[in-house]
Design goal:
With about 90 residues, the protein is of the alpha+beta class. It contains three helices and five strands. It has a three-stranded antiparallel sheet with strand order 4-3-5. It has a two-stranded antiparallel sheet with strand order 1-2. The longest helix is centred in the C-terminal third of the chain and has 12 residues. The structure holds zinc ion.
């Protein structure tokens, strides 16, 4: 079946989109947020539901690069809060 394949911005491994979480830049709110339904418009960054992938993505700037945003300190704080509110399901 044509299951979409995405690359995790943390570990750079590819996997089915269903196994990855999606982050999008919300231009209206001017912030990064989880796209829990994985179908919001705009550029998305995909991540495994693993703390290691998350940390690698933040440390290497993978999220900022993928979303084409220069993330400020407050954005990173926000991302950290998002990581703590890791969506389930
Ligand atoms: Zn990963």
């Amino acid at each position: 079946m044509g299951q979409p394949i995405r690359t995790c911005v943390g570990c750079r491994q590819r996997g089915p989109a269903a196994d990855l979480l999606r982050l999008v830049w919300d231009g209206r709110a001017s912030q990064v947020r989880w796209d829990e339904a994985r179908r919001q418009p705009g550029r998305g960054a995909w991540l495994h539901r693993r703390a290691g992938c998350w940390q690698a993505a933040v440390k290497r700037g993978g999220i900022a690069r993928t979303l084409r945003r220069r993330l400020q300190a407050e954005d990173l704080d926000e991302l950290r809060a998002l990581a703590e509110a890791w969506p389930v399901g």
